[in-house]
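Course assignment 3, question 2. Fill in each field.
Student: A.L.
Task: Predict the tertiary structure for the chain below.
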Amino acid sequence: MEAQFFGQGDWLSTLLWFIIFLIFILFGPRLMVGQTVWRLERDLQDIEAMAESTRKIILKRVGKRDRETRAALERFMDFFVVPPVNLDPYGIVKKLDHVLRNSEERFAEFSSRLLPGAGTVEIRNMKSALSSALLVHGIAKTVRHFLQLIKKYKIFQLAFLLQMQLPIIKKLASSSVKATESFLSGMPVGDSIGPMVAASFMRNPRKSEPEEFAYSVEKLEGRRVIFAKADGPGACVGKPGKFIEKICKRYRISRLVTVDAAGKLEGERTGSVAEGVGIAMGGPGVDRYEIEETVSRLGIPVDAIVIKQDPQEDVIVPMKPEIYSALEDAREAVIEAVKRAPEGSTVLVLGVGNTSGIGNDSSSVDLALKKLKRVRPRFSPSSGRKRILRRIR
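Answer field:
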């Protein structure tokens, strides 16, 4: 019997098979790329809609929708910061600090322009909201840039690479939209857990200017402990590097403990607490550099306590119950770290992060819970919440 490889001996079926095979070889990749580009365009429309929604949220809070205000906001969305030249790295931290401080001043200036006569808390909340809106706007511009490059130069490999990254990019953009709303309403976010831990110990807060910090000197486990955080409840991270340099001149610090949120790996439990050594702090690195300079010069041991959370979904959105429930474990870790210092010595505990919605004393923990229940009706921390509130009162 003669072997039939194509069809059942019918020459028409064999010819048709060859034509389909040829079309697939010649045009299959183009069809695949076309479909990928179409999906990218659809995702880009979603991201641009997110960027537009952040501007609407800000305009709604400002209470002005006139053409002049909208045009000013559109121009500010293209705000950028030029980093200093790093060809000669000597002194680059001071240069970067100078540029970042100028940037903060511009944000504060524009926030005051949008909210004339507003107080410090409202201005700080608007600054953080503008930062989130800028992030979404920048994401939309970057995705459109790469999409136009793909179309212009037919870089099909770039289309596939961009498509693989888009789920993470869209998740970050979506979180930034929620962050814009959260900051404007003064809501505690995932990154606020560090300041919340510090605030839960604070009874008699004092303010330290111009570092935008609050601190309280307490007695704990036979040691004098200084609990410090950015001045709240407005959205603010303060200037921890300069604050620690100042406080170390006033007190003889024997140990430094930093508490901060940290990005978790996939598979790790949200709200899990981990301990280590070093300065637990994110950001551009200026403040961490200043702290490391101070503690290394004075020979101060440093402990790091972090609360794990998703860097895209949790850090800048309203605090999740799992993160709030980590407060008790984080407090226990702080107490254990304080015990490592000699009795009668002075320990500095620094709550690192954005203090949005977190005041400067222990009562702010209960207030934060009430705020979170307004936006998350089913907000239900673990049974340890009563134990937490009982201990901090």
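Instructor remarks: The first strand starts at residue 206 and ends at 208. The first helix runs from residue 11 to 62.
Grade: pending
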